[in-house]
Fold:
Amino acid sequence: MSSKDSLCQKFTEKAELVSAFVTTIKTEDEALDYTINLCDKKQACQLLVSGCEEGLSDKAGELCETKQTKVIAAPGLKKTLYKELAAKSEKAGFNCIDSGMRDLLAGIDIGFTYAEYGIADTGTLMLDCPGEELRLSTMISEFHVCVLPTSKIKANTYEVEKMMLTRMKKTPDYMAYITGASRTADIERVLALGVHGPLELHILLLEDD
Amino acid sequence: MQKAHDLKEYRDELRESLDNDFLRTTLDNFAIAYRAGRANAFKDMDVRSLINDIAESKDIAGKNADKLFRDFKRNAEAAGIHVHFAKDGAEANAIIAKIAKDTGCKKIVKSKSMTAEETLLNHDLEDEGLEVTETDLGEWIIQLRHEGPSHMVMPAIHLSRYQVGELFTEVTGKEQDAEIEKLVKVARRELRQKYIEADMGITGANFAVAETGGIGLVTNEGNARLVSTLPRVHVALMGLDKLLPSLHDALRILKALPRNATGQQITSYVTWITGANECLSAEDGKKEIHYVMLDNGRSELVNDPLFSQVNRCVRCGACANVCPVYRLVGGHKMGHIYIGAIGLILTYFFHGKDKAKNLVQNCINCEACKDVCAGGIDLPRLIKDIHARIQDEDGHPLPSMLLGKVLKNRKLFHTLLRAAKWGQKPVAEKDGFIRHLPMIFSKEHSFRALPTIAEKPFRDWWKENKIKVKNPKHRVALFSGCVQDFVYPEQMQAAVELFQNNEVSMTYPMEQSCCGLPVQMMGEMKASKDVAIQNLRAFETDAYDYIITLCASCAAHLKHNYPKLVADNPRLKAKAEEFASKVIDYSSFVNDVLKVEASAFTKTGEKATYHAPCHLCRGLDVHEAPRELIEKGGLEYVECTEEEVCCGFGGTFSMKFPELSAELLNKKLNNVEATGADTLLTDCPGCIMQLRGGLKARDSHVKVKHVSEVLAKNKK
Ligand code: SF4
Ligand code: SF4
Structure:
């Protein structure tokens, strides 16, 4: 196996260990279709925001009502790709946005992003998001779909250290390592996903060379 | 939080915890799952060298804290961040309250920060009329219950889903199930609303990186990201101990922190914030960020020759995860704000002597925490030292002072032991146990039978049986320790027998006395030192190849603590180092030096299990030797569950906290009996006393022996 393949394999194995869904794709188009499909299937087409079905205080319940339609957020994409996604979304009956995240804090369905790097030994995505819209789309989405070009997978964090420093020195900066979905084990140590952030993380490995 | 005024009240509190079945079961399950999870997370990694590297880098950071702070501040300010320095908790809280006032903030969301717990920040902010909401699920739960955290990483580990369900019913005004998935969803919705309303977000920081002026935050829930993104003002409160020179230092710690904390390879989110980043709800589109750097005694601590290592703590909580005492009583009783082993130490420095004085006595010195610590901190040693400091300040309790005085005078001590042999006559049984507990013991001690003092101490036997060995291959000195000398001399005699057959010439220096560990455990440092000096003088170190002891606790104390105890006297220190380098435990000597073979023993095939004494497995890092000897000695070794967990003896600990000692012993014996073995072997007379006494009290048929006894018996 080439070293690139073994990095990919390691990355996949580690990401799946923390319940991320990893899929290999050949083109960006596949990524868009994957996202549209996922949004379609999500919650059996119901318009629910995670948690709204539970008994909430009146105030928290009100927030749930602010959501009117299924939303895919894809800030920070290159223009052509965003256009395509927006077209596909419209066809499927979803709202596709690249800004205005603060108006949708009750939650969006899918945040669609690109990772800068992948870190194989922990199955981690590295996303630099100094811009607030991109950042929020990875936090308030129920599902986070992230494209990771396989050429960007590095063995461990030390190998991204230089890149991180370069970015950090161009302040201000806000960078994240994301590994799996948001999780908690605070009640009786039982693992529960999606406590504040995404309930699911979907990683699309794009074979880019 | 720790409220007890004296040891008696503290013991009452401990008893309450012991009676809390839910807590006990959770902590038990957790302890077992944690061990497996951690081992798995560190698989194929060189943990020791990682820990050493972290220790070294944190030590350097501690030494340079002033400069690091200047660099950090300069870089952070250049990137548009306001940096404050607070000398204590009150000052930090005042700074934060003022920021809120100046920026017109009313509602605050917080992401978990131990430092804010340390300064009791919420109280002060609420007093200022601000609304503060914890967003970490566990923290939110305990905030709603008006409690403190009971674990550094899992603050609500003491609560059941039912308790949380009831709490959420109250909070939402809607009936809630006790289903965890659902409760988590409820929290998700309820808290989302809080983020939206908040104008200020407060986080801690796991790393403060001087070279970038940025911070790193490690979370699983993702709340720190929301807290640092949505509100227009962000305040990060951190201790000076979070300062690191470079990103590389942070990445290195990140390798160990989640693995050690929860057995995760990495947490879901690691967030790196540098500079005043974009904030669309702020007028100028920029977030207002303040770093509040807290000293609260830290800068003094890093200058202390012994306690500077406290700065290495990365707050992973592992020292609580493995602590057998924490496992019995939970964090509210094993700490004040910070809990577990490090909690006992930090309580003294951050919250004062009064809060710490009872807590520091509740350490059995099993060294499990030291073994697991991500920063390689010698926690048990520091705990004992604080105990000693407090006694020096407050006065020494009578029993510990008396023991100290007695031990300083070997002749008096031995005379008392000999007198005790006569004193016990009316209560002594033929089977080697005392029938009724003497008056000085209350009924809490009845969980185990106590042994009688032997007819003839080892030293008297030795005088009559000077063993001569022709053509010796090894020259050794024997160190018996008090228990084997006066209670179980047959264990020493068994060793002598085997040594004699293996061309080992032996010396038993008559001036030797107790190793001194018991008085050190009681916080009598001065007496411990005096006893060490006596023993060092009793041994002509250069006349032997090895100094052998059959007591794991003595061995570890002689080896690791003697050189430290006399460190201020260069001549004695050199002697102590030579002495220490020659100290070896019985099993390692017989297995690794004498290299005995199975062919030298009769095979009985009898099933035997093993108890690994704390001071052997962790204190001396000896694991294989005794187990190999059991097999070589003709027995069939059956592994016991939690073989390397403390039996609850801990010398004077079992006198002070009999209920805890009884529980630890109980667990141990259940595991032992479950193996189906008839024989339980171990390497420490203290453990033998505890285990035998406990088995006798439960009328068990399992026999406890020192490894030396089996080898002598089965020797061909
Ligand atoms: S030495 Fe043992 S009992 Fe003491 S704090 Fe450490 S783990 Fe707990
Ligand atoms: S003392 Fe060591 S084990 Fe305990 S929290 Fe700190 S780093 Fe972790």
Summary: The first strand of chain B starts at residue 82 and ends at 86. The CA atoms of residues 15 and 562 of chain B lie 36 Å apart. Chain B has a mean pLDDT of 93. Residues 21-41 of chain B form the longest helix (21 residues).
